[in-house]
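Intended use. Records such as the Riboflavin synthase entry shown here are meant for training and evaluating sequence-to-structure methods. They are not intended to support clinical decisions.
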Amino acid sequence: MFTGIIEEIGTVKEVMPATESLELVIAASKVLEDVHLGDSIAINGVCLTVTSFTEDAFTADVMPETFHSTSLSKVRRGSKVNLERAMSANGRFGGHFVSGHVDGVGTVSGKRQVENALYMDITYPSECASYLMPKGSVALDGTSLTIFGVNEKELTISLIPHTQEETILAQKAIGEPVNIECDMLAKYVERMVNRQPEKPSSNITMELLERNGFA
């Protein structure tokens, strides 16, 4: 489990590709301070397992499912990546619940500076539509953000100067891919409401949630 608060920007040192998988070596510092074999580290919002490490880098495997369903297949030697360690039970929870399981890959479709904020438009896949709403939460390349606006094809987010400096999002060019993880709570609510068991086990409906301010 992660919070979407990026701890540092790492650099891809090596990419060892197979046909439908990868082995990545990532140069880092902060996320290695207390690292152990088997630890989870989110790379651009994708939860991966540390398989080896040194004082200044760690290695992780990208399996075929992750290769095909995230943007990690596009990284190259020298690519910058967002890094976050799995959250600790005694830390502050600054973002939102982020699982590190990407729902789809979007594309940067627009960028514009407005005062100190950078607005970015992201074209998203249709399967994400149900979970995106103004003022809702979304993780882009692992970064916890509030949705500024959304239409049938694009969502808009606004990056404050700190996020522009401490994540890779501001450096993305038009046309570049972005990993999207929708709000976990929204996905669970939809699943619960739309599930139709033979013998209904719950009286919770969308109408009931809306009436009580939960949707």
